From TrEMBL, chain A:
One of its GO terms (biological process) is mRNA export from nucleus. Residues 180-202 are annotated as: Disordered. InterPro entries: THOC7/Mft1 (IPR008501). PANTHER family: MAINTENANCE OF KILLER 16 MAK16 PROTEIN-RELATED (PTHR23405), THO COMPLEX SUBUNIT 7 HOMOLOG (PTHR23405:SF5). Keywords: Coiled coil, Nucleus. This is THO complex 7. The keyword Transmembrane does not apply. One of its GO terms (cellular component) is THO complex part of transcription export complex. It holds the Pfam family THOC7.
UniProtKB/TrEMBL annotation, chain B:
SUPFAM superfamilies: WD40 repeat-like (SSF50978). Pfam families: WD40. Gene3D superfamilies: YVTN repeat-like/Quinoprotein amine dehydrogenase (2.130.10.10). This is THO complex 6. Keywords: WD repeat. WD repeats lie at residues 124-165. It comes from Hucho hucho (huchen). One of its GO terms (cellular component) is THO complex. Belongs to the WD repeat THOC6 family. InterPro entries: THOC6, WD40/YVTN_repeat-like_dom_sf, WD40_repeat_dom_sf, WD40_rpt. The keyword Transmembrane helix does not apply. One of its GO terms (biological process) is mRNA export from nucleus.
Length: 202, 299
């Protein structure tokens, strides 16, 4: 454990050192020049220039530190931004999945509907080939009426036939009766004359 | 199996296992090959996964018909019917569960299992020639059969009587006298029936017993199926025809065999929903999307 963290520390220090070669060196140089300036034995102008130089270096160090802090802030915010985008995309993916399954169900439904429509069309085609029901009913009615009329006429004609038959029958039977009566009369006349001649003859 | 035999092989029948992961196919040499669909469809499939996991000789003559029940695979060859247990086949054990000879000469088609268990001893008489195809309407309790004599007979399986007889070749719009009057494919779905063969493939409405649509497909159709709102049919051409119920041919998808004998849809499983077609070639085409051929399994 200790070895691991040591490695980590060494790695970090190397990184920092490698990256900020200027920065670390600058701080060391500042420190050295500060100690040198504290123990300075030269002229006050030299000391002043050295002091100015040190302030400059210090400012540079502060500037680079400020920059790193800002970069760090920026990284944090970028991370947040990416997290947000990531969650957004995940949501979109799930909603797209849902939409896809919805659409699949729709397709199934639409296919069923299409199938039903086609079956209906196919049957309708066959039905169209047969004549219209109303037409046929009307024709049937007309035919019925005709049939009735004709049977009426037939009845009438039959009745008349019967009547005429009966009339003829009556006529013929009267004729026959008359004939009979005439014959009877003739016969009785003949009988009478025969009887009277027989009576006269005796 | 040399290359010459491969060249002359025809696949006559196919059947999916009840779990949907295996396909059994029968060819004209009397062999049945079992393919593992799950390995052939997996993302890391190789050449090897497109060959059978098991091939065995089931009959002396060609295996004309295969049918799967919940536990067994029934196969019919020249005059005998054998049953193989799917569990045993998956374990590569090729011993038949039973073999029976029905008392007629040669069988070309297996009736669906309902018919066999319900009336094992009754014989439906009425056809005058070979029977090529059968279909069952469970809701109405009817069996339909179509055969060489051109008649589609509808039988009530409880009484064993022929309820209707449709002579397809007598209808002008369906008949194609140049091909003959035999019926080689028959399938039903609720009130509708598809039949074809010598006469053109036609869609019939069974309640009114009238043909509603005729499909303008050249060649004789050997097998047809209803699928969602379409009709899939295979036959003499080198393609699978997709048709709409109204009578138009929507698409013709090309396949490897020159003439197709059998078409099977795997609706038992949700992962391996494929369409497979086989015909006069040793290759069986597999379609994962109905619009194009994905790959071929090879005997």
């Amino acid at each position: 454990m200790g070895a691991v963290t040591d490695d980590e520390v060494i790695r970090k220090r190397l990184l920092i050192d490698g990256d900020g070669a200027g920065d670390d060196r600058r701080i060391n140089v500042l420190l050295k020049s500060f100690t040198k300036w504290c123990n300075a034995t030269g002229s006050p102008e030299e000391g002043f220039t050295q002091y100015q130089r040190m302030l400059g270096t210090l400012a540079q160090c502060e500037f680079s530190m400020g920059k790193t802090l800002l970069v760090y802030d920026m990284n944090l915010r970028e991370m947040e931004n990416y997290e947000k985008i990531y969650t957004d995309i995940e949501q979109n993916i799930t909603s797209a999945h849902d939409k896809i399954s919805e659409c699949k169900k729709e397709i199934q439904r639409a296919k069923r509907i299409r199938k039903n429509r086609q079956e209906y069309d196919a049957l309708a085609k066959v039905i169209q080939q047969h004549p219209d029901r109303h037409e046929t009913l009307k024709q049937l009615e007309a035919l019925d009426k005709e049939l009735q009329q004709l049977s009426h006429i037939k009845e009438n004609v039959e009745d008349k036939l019967e009547l005429r038959k009966k009339q003829f029958h009556v006529l013929l039977s009267t004729i026959q009766e008359l004939q009979q009566t005439l014959e009877n009369d003739e016969k009785s006349e003949n009988d009478d004359t025969q009887e009277s001649s027989m009576e006269n003859g005796e | 199996m040399g290359p010459v035999e491969h060249l002359h092989m025809s696949v006559f029948s196919q059947s999916f296992s009840p779990c949907g992961r295996f396909l059994a196919a029968g060819n004209n040499y009397g062999e049945i090959a079992v393919f593992s669909l799950s390995s052939a469809l997996s993302p890391d499939a190789t050449e090897l996964s497109q060959t059978p996991i098991l091939t065995f000789t089931a009959h002396e003559g060609p295996v004309f018909s295969l049918f799967s029940t919940d536990t067994h695979l029934l196969s019919a060859g020249n005059g005998e019917i054998s049953a193989w247990s799917w569990a045993e086949l998956i374990k590569r054990n090729t011993k038949a569960a039973w073999t029976r000879r029905p008392n007629y000469k040669s069988s070309l088609e297996i009736p669906e299992i309902n018919a066999m268990t319900v009336n094992p001893t009754s014989v439906l008489q009425g056809h005058t020639d070979y029977i090529h195809c059968l279909s069952v309407r469970e809701r109405e309790g009817e069996i339909l059969s179509g055969g060489e004599d051109g008649a589609v007979r509808i039988w009530d399986y409880r009484t064993g009587q022929s309820v209707h007889c449709i002579e397809v070749y007598k209808y002008e719009e369906c008949a194609r006298p140049q091909y003959g009057k035999w019926i080689s494919c028959l399938t039903t779905e609720s009130d509708w029936m598809l039949c074809g063969g010598g006469p053109s493939l036609s869609l019939w409405h069974l309640r009114s017993m009238s043909p509603t649509s005729i499909f303008p497909l050249s060649g004789c159709q050997r097998q047809a199926n209803f699928y969602q709102d379409m009709i899939l049919s295979v036959g003499e051409g080198q393609c699978v025809s997709h048709c709409l119920l109204g009578g138009e041919v929507k698409a013709q998808i090309p396949c490897t065999p020159h003439s197709l004998n059998t078409l099977a849809l795997n609706l038992n499983s949700t992962d391996n929903r494929v369409l497979t077609v086989g015909g006069s070639s040793h290759q069986i085409d597999v379609f994962t999307n109905l619009s194009y051929r994905t790959f071929s399994l090879s005997f």
